[in-house]
Amino acid sequence: MKVSSLDLNSPRWRLIAVVVIFAAAIYRWAPRYDPIGAVPNTGYESLNVAYSLAHNLGFANPFKILQSGPTAHLAPIFPFFLSILVRLFGDGSRTLYIVDWAGIAAFALQLALWPLLARRLSMGFGSGALGAMLWLTIGYKSASVWEANYAAIVIIVLSIGMYNLLTRHCPDRHFYIVALLWGFAILLLPVVVLPFVVFCCWLLARPLATRRQKLAFVIISVGSLMPWTLRNYATFHHLFFIRDNLGLELGVSNNECADFSFQVNALTWCYIHPNQDPEEARRVQELGEYNYNQQRLQEVKAWISANPERFATLTLQRIVAFWIPNSSGNPATSTVAPNVKAVWISTLLSLPGLLLLWWRDRVAATICLVWLVFFPPIYYLVQFDLRYRTPIMWATVVPACYVFTRLGSDLLYSFRAQDAAENKHRKHQASCNKKQVVAQP
What we know:
By secondary structure, the chain is mainly α.
């Protein structure tokens, strides 16, 4: 066999690696079928809204306790997707099984895209492949009833698209596609709006794009949000950005007995949420969802003003937990699983990885930093949950693995240079010996 056929950088071997990662993730997290479950009984807000959509009740009723009417509690894309599955496969356990499989497939695709993303962002295909393999071994996945697995795919594709737009002259259709994808991403996971604003300003400042391309990018991306905004205004008679639940989420996360973590709060009596508390659900029904959330917002503002030190403590604990997940608010006193420690290690190693990437490709390093800096701030204000990190997990794991692949590449280069120097020395010595022999009488 020719040596060239063993080139691991060839498209064929890269395709094989991507397929193997995808298949391994499917095998690693394949769900089990539970014949007992049913869509209306799960309690998940996304499935509750999907059930209402599938039964022609509109985008409504996110809470399991009672029907609270039209809602903007969730962004629209994911519930609409789940409603298609409910329409096709019914309300029973089979649909829940398919939802699980869809989530697993999305997570597997995310991991399979890591090597391609790493290659585009100048960290090398091997860094992404190593990161995906490590995650397959010791990682975790987000639950299928949340949009995090799907959002991760969109964010990865957006990162590749933005790198192309920021580093080269691209045809108009590339700007149109990336702009539409930004609109889709915001309607799937609204917290990406802050990175979008940063990327948009960056793109508008770059000379590689024409004025027409920049204008089209802004109009298409922002315009794609208008139908949902108009729906919300027609329904609630108020303007707000995608979701109206900020007051509720801040309220359950910041009160006199709140803990920093969702896992702890959900088990306590002070977790006052309409998905669990019948009185709160009736308040939503009586006041209307928008007015209810505004009332909760005023309540939490008053509490923060009266308890600034407690709010600061909770916020600090949530910031630490987002980057170094733990169960007690203090990593030094927490007992955590090995897969959570893997998050710690990747976070710490990503710092030298990003520094190495900055020296090699500043655009690629800045793209990673935009996600790491501007994606999580809203999660510092609400109760911590490990799934919030899923969409940008690649931005720490892949740079962390880049440290190892860069070190291995440098060592290999050093060994090859040493071998070349030794071969050159041997040839020179042999040439000298040959001249001495010829020079003898």
